[in-house]
Write a structure and sequence with these properties.
By secondary structure, the protein is α+β, with helices and mostly antiparallel strands. It contains three helices and eleven strands; from the N terminus they run H-E-E-H-E-E-E-E-E-E-E-E-E-H.
C-alpha cells in the first residue's frame, strides 16, 4: 500500500473520530475542508439541512451577538485541524450561555505545522462582529470541554454589518428549494423570527 494511501486512510479515520466527538445535530450539508501540506484534503460534510430560522434556533442553545478577539488556538486531532477562537458576548438574542461573557468557539480548519485552511472554511476574524447560533461542544463520551460550536456550521454564522446580518459563508445553506434560512436579514427580522 502506498504511503499516500495510508495517509489518506489515517486522515479519513481521524475525521470520523473528530466528527464523532461533536454533536451530530449541529451540522448541515455545506462542506468544509482542510488542506494538508502534502496536498491531501480532509473534507467534512454532514446531512442536516435547516429549513427555517426556527429549526436552526431549536437546534441551538443560544443565539448571541459576539465580537471575535485575536485570541485563538489550533488543535489537531487525528490530523484534522480545529481553531478555537475566543469571542466576547455583547448581547444574548435568545437562550443562555450560562452567564458567560466570553466563549471559546471551535471551528473546523486552522493552520499549524503545515496544516492549512481550505478556502471554504470561514473562520471567525478578530475584531469582527457576528451573530452566532451556538451549542456547547462535548466529546462523544459527554465530557464537557468549555467550548462552543456554531450550529450548522455555516447556517448559524452571520457577520453583523450595522443592523444587517450576512451569512459568513456567503453561500446558501443548501440547494433545497424549501430552504428558507436567509443568507441576509436585518436584526429586526431575526428578532421577529426568534419571538415566534
Amino acid at each position: 500500500m502506498s504511503s499516500r494511501l495510508i495517509r489518506m486512510s489515517l486522515l479519513s479515520a481521524g475525521l470520523l473520530c473528530a466528527a464523532s466527538c461533536g454533536s451530530p445535530r449541529s451540522v448541515d450539508r455545506a462542506p468544509q475542508a482542510a488542506q494538508m501540506s502534502n496536498g491531501a484534503a480532509v473534507h467534512g460534510s454532514a446531512a442536516r439541512t435547516f429549513h427555517s430560522l426556527r429549526e436552526l434556533t431549536d437546534a441551538s442553545r443560544a443565539v448571541v451577538q459576539v465580537r471575535a478577539t485575536p485570541q485563538h488556538t489550533v488543535e489537531v486531532i487525528g490530523g484534522v485541524p480545529f481553531t478555537v477562537t475566543t469571542v466576547e458576548v455583547t448581547k444574548i438574542e435568545h437562550g443562555s450561555v450560562n452567564g458567560q461573557t466570553t466563549l471559546h468557539v471551535r471551528q473546523l480548519g486552522g493552520e499549524q505545522q503545515g496544516v492549512a485552511v481550505a478556502s471554504n472554511a470561514v473562520l471567525l476574524r478578530p475584531g469582527t462582529d457576528y451573530v452566532l447560533f451556538v451549542e456547547p461542544f462535548s466529546f462523544g463520551d459527554g465530557r464537557d470541554t468549555g467550548q462552543w460550536v456554531i450550529v450548522g456550521p455555516d447556517a448559524g454564522q452571520y457577520e453583523l454589518q450595522g443592523d444587517r446580518l450576512v451569512r459568513s459563508s456567503g453561500a446558501p445553506v443548501s440547494t433545497d428549494a424549501e430552504d428558507t434560512v436567509p443568507a441576509t436579514m436585518s436584526l429586526a427580522q431575526l428578532r421577529a423570527a426568534l419571538a415566534t
